[in-house]
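FAQ
Q: What does a multi-component entry look like?
A: The components come first, one per line:
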Amino acid sequence: MDFQYSQEQQQLADAVGRLFEKSYDFEARKRIVGSVDGWSPDAWAAMAEMGLLMIPFAADDGGFGGGVTDLIATMEAIGAALVVEPFASTLLGGRLVANACSAAQREALLPGVIDGSTKLAFAHAERASRYALNQVETKAVKAAKGDGGWRLDGEKVVVLHAPMADRLIVSARTSGEATDAGGISLFVVDPKAAGVTTKTYRTVDNLRAADIAFAGATLPADALLGEPGAAFDAIDEAVDFATVLACCEAVGAMKFANEATLEYLKTRKQFGVPIGAFQALQHRMVDMTISAEQARSICLLACAKLDAAARGEIEAAERRRVVSAAKVKTADACRHVGQEAIQLHGGMGMTQEMKVAHTFKRLTMIAQQYGDVDHHLERFAASW
Amino acid sequence: MDFQYSQEQQQLADAVGRLFEKSYDFEARKRIVGSVDGWSPDAWAAMAEMGLLMIPFAADDGGFGGGVTDLIATMEAIGAALVVEPFASTLLGGRLVANACSAAQREALLPGVIDGSTKLAFAHAERASRYALNQVETKAVKAAKGDGGWRLDGEKVVVLHAPMADRLIVSARTSGEATDAGGISLFVVDPKAAGVTTKTYRTVDNLRAADIAFAGATLPADALLGEPGAAFDAIDEAVDFATVLACCEAVGAMKFANEATLEYLKTRKQFGVPIGAFQALQHRMVDMTISAEQARSICLLACAKLDAAARGEIEAAERRRVVSAAKVKTADACRHVGQEAIQLHGGMGMTQEMKVAHTFKRLTMIAQQYGDVDHHLERFAASW
Amino acid sequence: MDFQYSQEQQQLADAVGRLFEKSYDFEARKRIVGSVDGWSPDAWAAMAEMGLLMIPFAADDGGFGGGVTDLIATMEAIGAALVVEPFASTLLGGRLVANACSAAQREALLPGVIDGSTKLAFAHAERASRYALNQVETKAVKAAKGDGGWRLDGEKVVVLHAPMADRLIVSARTSGEATDAGGISLFVVDPKAAGVTTKTYRTVDNLRAADIAFAGATLPADALLGEPGAAFDAIDEAVDFATVLACCEAVGAMKFANEATLEYLKTRKQFGVPIGAFQALQHRMVDMTISAEQARSICLLACAKLDAAARGEIEAAERRRVVSAAKVKTADACRHVGQEAIQLHGGMGMTQEMKVAHTFKRLTMIAQQYGDVDHHLERFAASW
Amino acid sequence: MDFQYSQEQQQLADAVGRLFEKSYDFEARKRIVGSVDGWSPDAWAAMAEMGLLMIPFAADDGGFGGGVTDLIATMEAIGAALVVEPFASTLLGGRLVANACSAAQREALLPGVIDGSTKLAFAHAERASRYALNQVETKAVKAAKGDGGWRLDGEKVVVLHAPMADRLIVSARTSGEATDAGGISLFVVDPKAAGVTTKTYRTVDNLRAADIAFAGATLPADALLGEPGAAFDAIDEAVDFATVLACCEAVGAMKFANEATLEYLKTRKQFGVPIGAFQALQHRMVDMTISAEQARSICLLACAKLDAAARGEIEAAERRRVVSAAKVKTADACRHVGQEAIQLHGGMGMTQEMKVAHTFKRLTMIAQQYGDVDHHLERFAASW
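Then the predicted structure of the entire assembly, as tokens:
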């Protein structure tokens, strides 16, 4: 509630805000969402040009060397504008590469991430896995022909942004049982490769996603990212990273929802007085505001802890606990603020014509992205 | 929770269930929703043929003479199948006609309602009215040329099912101040008439709605339904009627959501055991079930009270209180069951491919249709 | 919400209401609660004289042959007046006797229950049992001297009304493992017998309770109620009976809380207007009222189902489900209404001088008596 | 969630913790609460000796010159130990003196506050005022005899700690209408003076309080604190100060409740396994923990803001908003944690023998002390 941006962070926040204000208003977004591919190359290029994609990568990898804390302003702006381009998905993919890979692989992959030419999606969840990161049944085995290549079989579901990804980062089991943390490996896969079938669709909040089947897909030897079977910790950290990004996006979306609702209450009149003059509605408006502020507060803490863990200053267990606590409370706030925003708009809140209705749907989705409340309560308990 | 259908009601329930099971499964619905007009003439014809549209009208008007109690099974089936055709809107329009009109007008309008040839929409809410039924600023004045006709000016918003309506029932003020209960009249209007402009769009749950502007629209003398300025009580009763229909639709939608979720929990496996074996998820599933049952219980009571009031056995104030109480608690259950259903489905619950995601959106909309929680708490207090 | 008393039930309701109004007002109750023994022989005698203790027992046993439905009015009046005498505990004990025993034992014990001379308490819960009815570690073994007597060892905790009980009904294991449903027996025990140590204290709501240790307590052969090892079903049914009694008591307590709060809001003035004129408070008051009505509705259903199960018309599993559903929802309402009642009273609600503060404490206790929400969700799931 | 004590603050926290651990365990507290006067001179003396009462007063007034931030550890320890002595009430009284008075009056009164010889209570709320600070109907008029003295008439209600106060700080209207912010003055009053009648009682959480009637009580000229009619801002600030103290006390009480519950879940066994192994209970335990942490986070922010406002760095309006937001969210957490703590203890949680039952009652009271949720939502809206 009382976090202050550094001067540099404030400048970035202002610049990103201006970018979306100018080129990503609700009408522009509607066109993008309604387009065949569901994303805008122009908007994506503008984000890359501004250097947003370089923020969290190490200077050695061509990045800005920032932490997740430096992404807060960008994610809040993305949330406020309901940006549908694969920003967080691409950073998540990049994080996996940065976490798991040798310098050579980072050099091969990260420049494209940073300049925007390689959009990524992380294909990890499976029908049986729900939110458990360790349940991986997709299998990768050494290819028969002995050139070090791999053969990939299995299915990944609800892979966000997969339809527009240039490359997929795919988790697969190279050893161990279906729920072992050990034995999980990461591969970089061309979604157009033979043996890869993508069934695309929309999510409730109109993002593009896909179920992806691998049926004997053949991968070259260097598709393996890092050491075989050792990817779990990298995944665990990168998903925590993506989780706090989603939380910050939610904070921005809630900020928009609250501002739009307050504006509506102030200007609409009923019985000749502004609707916001009715005490019961006013109290609900304040309550939403406090919920959003409190969610922001715990999200900022989670960002700080994730960065501290990345610097080795705290244990991964503490990072997990705080990220899970932040997700639990942000999900509560998403539901509270999202529902109230459309209800306080009266019937208007239910039309697709109002941006707030789309914000509601996005908030509903974030509430369960990377794990619903029970998943994170469970995970918190396990890190105790 | 313990309501028993009569044999006749049970037969109807079974027949309606079979109708939608056969011809309105999720794939069929997807096609209808995706079509240009957003409704299916075939489905509509089947509903009319089965006699569903005659149920609540008096035998003298060509109806079956039933109460809202006799519509429960149909509305539950509509909710379960997510039927988008204008069934409740048409009955609401017909109720207004039945409540307000002379025998001659009823004879002119109701046969078309009953045989399905006249789909109706009720154009009542305005930008300033929120959920207040008495705030009507649309004006109807006697036309200058002295033929007893009317001139209509104003705007109605979020008129559900208007894009497919053959006739609109429009409320307009013929006397009094903007928020007087007296002075409100009802008119039947051809949506294609000169001076009527319709801006159509979709609601969050993919129903079709419209904002309708009247700019000097000319109406014939017989467009006025009943006595001028005396329509408020008819509107109040008909909207209560529509409110309990929406509640019963929600009960059906919740029943589907619960069954689908239970099925999902029983069959999906994680760590080799059905997801439903996890205690926390199991408890949430039971809690949803109890919420839905309790909502059903209070909805049935509201149906009974509405019928009793229609027969003159209880006061309108008691009807209002019980309908508002039912709406408050049904809205709570809609939010609870809707949110839990998609969350218990895990990531799958967020794809447009799953019917339950659409049920969630429909439940969200019903939660505020005809008034959100604060509106109905206020109305209950006013009837004390 | 729409239950109508029969004429007979209404007369009883009126009579019980008058009894407590006359002799059990808040001042009288304060004296009783503050007395050494914490109950009033006069009040108890008056209840017995009115025949309240005979209601649920069979005519053959000297009772009135009524169902739990016939006890609703009495329990609601007890809840409204915050009666502390062991009415429900004595009926629970009597129910165990009626459920488990031979005619001879019923004849020995029930007349005293019915005429008020034998107050009972059910000593069942143990430190490890939480709310599970089948976890009994207290042991009863045949006494060495071969006269058919028993030796009792173990400890029972939080035995409500034990300090004033003339006889305890004690569950003990005569065979099987600690959590087997089979092997549990019931015994009638004189609390003053050798080997029985009672540690008395008050509960949060100022009722009297005790932890009771049995250290080689010697019981005569006829202390065993019914067949050895076969008491589980009798206990399960009797505790369901007591659970719905507690729910009905809660309904009465909520009725008082709502009336007292409404009265307070109507008469207290702030800024020169009644507090109840403030919209936010008014809405909270309506919400409490609807919650209480809805709780009453599901409690009445549970009463009807318990009686139907007792008559063999429905399965025990259905009884369990409905009783658990009623308990879950009543507990929600207890917390909602209890908290709101004291909060709407402002600072006054926090003084021991206001009856509503005691009602709040009683409601808090009922919310978890015979099992908290998770216990009953679990139990519902188990009966699916 | 991530506040770090300074070394000095940590030492104080440790010392206070040791003090209560040694001399204020649950048995000791039970004796104090059960004593005639309801407080312990020894415990009070120990707190004074440790210098706790000097913390927030300026060095010029003989204090330590600390902020409310320096009181966090003490208030948390008081909350954990359920200390009943009038620590916060005395500091509140002292704050009023410090805020409102000339140097001479501060010199006359504050040394006694700081050394513990003058326990204070703030007599402000009235029957009609609810939580509004500006509604004061108690009247002070210049005494007839012209010696500059005052005559006091009116009634104050639920004055916490009044029965043990050496002096009362009393608000009274010296000009203006009943709800004017202007015209309110503060007086120091000997509770034993003629014309002062005290009706003492206990609050729900067993603190001592009183209703105090002033019937022509005669006060000397120097009883007036500061300028006549100008006390509102001093009261507003001091009550915000007391509100954050109460919030910090709640944080300490929740910490105890969580630790006690976790301990209970870990050690109690059911079906042979620790109760805490049951997933549903485990999730509830984590949820309580996160709620308490989040409440602590917003309370710490409110402390920082109150200190910043006291230093003139931010506006009073911002202080008000943050204090009200903290109170709203702390009250939510109080109810959540308090209810869950006793419920997770099973039946044991309902006995007066368990400290956690008393913690529950204290949390319930703090939830509405200095204003319930609606009051603070309203106040937040007014400061927007």
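Q: Is there any commentary attached?
A: Sometimes. For this entry: The two ends of chain C are 26 Å apart (CA to CA).
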